[in-house]
Structure to design on (465 residues):
């Protein structure tokens, strides 16, 4: 990797749009200077369009990309409704057949797709650990290393979050056969993190921990895992699925007398290290208390819509000062701009209003949302990916000013058109991650071989299901 310079006539910085911006980065892929009102030095490359900060994707289950679109049929009988829980049964079938080679091919294609769609880093919530019979691989980190290699190969920044999973439901219910590949004692997962440390550090990846959910991690294990992680690295991120479904809320109330977020806030040291994934079903007190802790809300609009989860009350969260970021989760959609659009549209439908997520200092919705999603995603990633500023990673997206939806517009309106008026990914011209150009003219250099390997892996997986 080499140091570099780029001159952009227009760039979206953490405080808003700026003109004549000179970006400088070092050989480690970190921005060393972001100068506004600059004069372009002779011979320095010029950005081909408006420059946006790369968006962190804060929630991903990579293997689920292989069955996106394949669960869109009614799978229950007798007049019952399909739901998250019936979808989960189908998901377990795919998870049970997955091989390491298939996981690496699927993740490589997915991470490449993310780059082409405007994401420059991902938080991988990784819970398939073992062989199909539930026995550990000889190398317990086999599947984790598949994900590290996939991210390194395509150039996507990575926060790897091995998942702690121990029970099949609240109150220590026994796990069932579909969950056997996920299960680990607490000490085994902490040992996995230790083993992965050197390899992750060598490629600039970050490690953290993901207690899967309150229904899958008993209270004592949650306490031990958080303490153990803190002893290893007191700044490591902690992500947890919580309050995604109303049944989860009802089951938690039955078990503890408290709602999930209420219980977590009362029994765990929730702070800025934590990402509360989904947190869809909270009451006003939970919104207020969770935001006050500094935790990030991990919102996944396309997956939450696909699974019928419900809608997060983002204006209420914002009123409480809460941070948030975006994830593509099950990857029914892999498109940074489309997640932004769906998030705003969900709030409009909920409130029967327009431009809900605009701010007083950023009245353009797309600009306001992009800046908030980058800041929250960076916090959840625990990596320096908080936008175009010195000390942050040199991660950015260049829009195509010649795209029909964008042509002739101001940079701010180009971003609005990219999110709300184009085919979204089609307006992405170039993507840079860690100071290296990964996508040119909308395509990654590995697009064709990665796509072929993905199709082969998916076909083999479907044959085995």
């Amino acid at each position: 990797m080499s140091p570099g310079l780029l001159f952009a006539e227009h760039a979206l910085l953490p405080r808003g749009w700026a003109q004549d911006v000179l970006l400088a980065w070092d050989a480690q892929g970190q921005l060393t200077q972001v100068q506004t009102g600059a004069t372009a030095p002779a011979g320095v490359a010029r950005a081909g369009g408006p420059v946006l900060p790369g968006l962190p994707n804060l929630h991903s289950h990579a293997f689920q990309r292989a069955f996106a679109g394949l669960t869109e049929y009614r799978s229950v009988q007798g007049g019952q409704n399909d739901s998250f829980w019936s979808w989960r049964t189908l998901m377990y079938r795919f998870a049970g057949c997955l091989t390491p080679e298939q996981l690496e091919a699927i993740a490589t294609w997915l991470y490449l797709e993310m780059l082409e769609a405007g994401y420059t880093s991902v938080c991988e919530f990784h819970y398939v650990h073992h062989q199909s019979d539930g026995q550990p691989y000889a190398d317990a980190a086999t599947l984790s290393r598949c994900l590290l290699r996939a991210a390194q190969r395509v150039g996507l920044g990575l926060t790897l979050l091995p998942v702690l999973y121990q029970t099949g439901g609240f109150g220590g219910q026994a796990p069932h056969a579909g969950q056997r590949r996920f299960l680990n004692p607490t000490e085994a997962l902490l040992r996995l993190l230790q083993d992965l440390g050197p390899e992750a550090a060598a490629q600039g990846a970050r490690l953290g921990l993901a207690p899967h959910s309150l229904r899958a991690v008993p209270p004592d294990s949650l306490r031990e895992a958080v303490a153990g992680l803190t002893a290893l690295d007191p700044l490591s991120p902690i992500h947890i699925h919580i309050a995604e479904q109303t049944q989860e809320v009802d089951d938690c109330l039955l078990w503890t007398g408290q709602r999930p977020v209420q219980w977590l806030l009362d029994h765990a040291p929730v702070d800025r290290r934590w990402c509360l994934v989904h947190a869809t079903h909270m009451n006003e007190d939970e919104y207020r208390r969770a935001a006050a802790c500094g935790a990030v809300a991990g919102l996944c609009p396309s997956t939450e819509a696909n699974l019928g989860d419900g809608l997060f009350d983002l204006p209420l969260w914002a009123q409480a000062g809460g941070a948030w970021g975006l994830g593509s989760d099950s990857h029914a959609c892999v498109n940074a701009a489309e997640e932004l659009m769906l998030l705003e549209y969900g709030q409009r439908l909920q409130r029967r209003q327009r431009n809900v997520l605009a701010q007083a200092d950023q009245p353009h919705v797309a600009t306001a949302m992009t800046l908030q999603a980058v800041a929250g995603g960076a916090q959840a990633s625990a990596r320096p990916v908080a936008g175009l500023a010195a000390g942050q990673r040199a991660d950015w997206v260049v829009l195509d000013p010649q795209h029909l939806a964008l042509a002739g517009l101001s940079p701010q309106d180009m971003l609005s058109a990219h999110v709300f008026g184009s085919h979204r990914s089609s307006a992405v011209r170039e993507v840079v991650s860690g100071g290296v150009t990964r996508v040119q003219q909308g395509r990654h250099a590995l697009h064709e071989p990665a796509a072929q390997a993905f199709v082969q892996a998916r076909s083999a997986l479907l044959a085995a299901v």
